[in-house]
Write a structure and sequence with these properties.
alpha/beta; two-stranded antiparallel sheet; 13-stranded mixed beta sheet; 15 strands
Length: about 375
């Protein structure tokens, strides 16, 4: 099977009408377009609301003024270009500024807007940092997309990292199994690289990015099976995206199908308030209702995802919604003392980000036992 042809020019989208191409070009002046013949073939061009179309085709709504260039303030956790160390046990390496397609809701649009400094330039220097920080047990290779690198380059990085006794997991952040599963199916060397560590006490996790069941094609399922057979551990994450998976039935179907394939739903992210993302974001409180309704429709094995936002202060999980308050918990925290902290905020149905909750009513660390019941008095649980 041949790999698909990559398409970076609006004029090469033969299925789009002339007027649609004209509006796309206006968007393209600010935000790049990239896809390929395989992914575009999944679109029902007779359906203006097709979810794949929504995911990949530029739309004039992206030009609405909204959001920040670095909404999670990744710059503040950057040790050197391309190396982030926000959470104690995890190092993030931005190893590529290329993707198999450019998601219209991308939160790292800065990588495609002429900004070079974020990408890793010196792997040896990053390796030395990880070697010296023995608290790091897992390393995420992302970007961009880790699978846009050659297998040879990835193998070299992974082999080096696994020589460190304190690193037990290397994660590959990728949407290639959605955009271009032929990257896996047509590259036996990649599959064998994953197999090399099977049963060795260290694991390669492939963090997939399926956002809708239309992406779970036969060839995508084949790629999944090949990686699982080789010992790769697959988990899935997706943002909650307006017009794609923002209703309970659609999200539940995604959870269910992933569980059938043996891929645990891992995170559902609040769409980050990056520039151009307003049309793709769902308010937090609406998103919480969608997420909980979807979970109610599936088995425990299919509802393992957590609804979180990657805030500058940490990964905040949305854990409850009452009559007056929203309830958050620091699933991961940039400051160790905030880990597990429970935060109660006054409801704001218009909130898209934690910063939109201006009044914090109470906050305290969660304890397994001994928490005073008086801490919860007056809160509408």
């Amino acid at each position: 099977m041949k790999r698909p042809k990559y398409i970076s020019k609006i004029s090469d989208i033969s299925e789009a009408s002339g007027s649609e191409k004209s509006s796309m070009r206006e968007v393209e002046k600010r935000f790049r377009f990239l896809s390929n013949s395989y992914y575009l073939s999944l679109i029902d061009w007779n359906d203006p609301d097709d979810p794949i179309r929504r995911l990949i085709v530029p739309h004039p709504d992206e030009l609405a003024e909204w959001g920040a260039i670095d909404p999670s303030n990744e710059e503040s956790y950057t040790i050197m270009p391309g190396l982030q160390h926000k959470y104690k046990s995890t190092a993030v390496l931005l190893v590529s500024k290329a993707c198999g397609g450019i998601c219209r809701y991308c939160f790292r649009k800065r990588l495609f807007m002429g900004v070079q400094s974020d990408i890793l330039r010196d792997f040896d220097a990053a390796y030395d940092y990880i070697k010296e920080h023995r608290e790091i047990s897992n390393v995420l290779l992302t970007g961009g997309d880790a699978l846009m690198l050659s297998t040879k380059k990835l193998d070299k990085m992974i082999e080096a990292l696994f020589k460190l006794d304190h690193v037990g997991i290397v994660r590959l952040g990728t949407k290639m199994l959605s955009f271009d599963p032929f990257r896996v199916v047509n590259d036996p060397a990649f599959v064998e690289m994953v197999r090399k560590y099977k049963g060795k006490g260290k694991s390669i996790y492939i963090v997939t990015h399926f956002s809708h069941t239309k992406e779970l094609t036969q060839v995508a399922r084949e790629a999944v099976a090949m990686l699982q057979d080789a010992g790769g551990v697959l988990v899935n994450q997706t943002p909650l995206i307006r017009g794609v998976n923002d209703d309970p039935d659609t999200l539940a179907k995604l959870f269910r199908e992933l569980s059938f394939l043996g891929i645990p739903p891992y995170y559902v992210f609040q769409c980050r308030p990056a520039v151009g993302n307003n049309a793709y974001a769902v308010p937090i409180e609406e998103g919480y209702e969608i997420f909980e309704a979807a979970k109610s429709m599936v088995s425990g094995l299919a509802k393992r995802a957590k609804y979180v936002m990657s805030h500058s202060t940490g990964k905040l999980e949305m854990v409850g919604k009452g009559e007056k308050y929203m309830y958050f918990k620091y699933h991961r925290a940039a400051k160790d003392e905030d880990s597990g902290k429970f935060v109660v905020a006054e409801r704001n149905p218009e909130a898209y980000w934690f910063n939109d909750y201006k009044t914090i009513v109470d906050e305290f660390p969660i304890k397994w036992a001994g928490s005073s019941a008086t801490q919860f008095q007056g809160l509408a649980l």
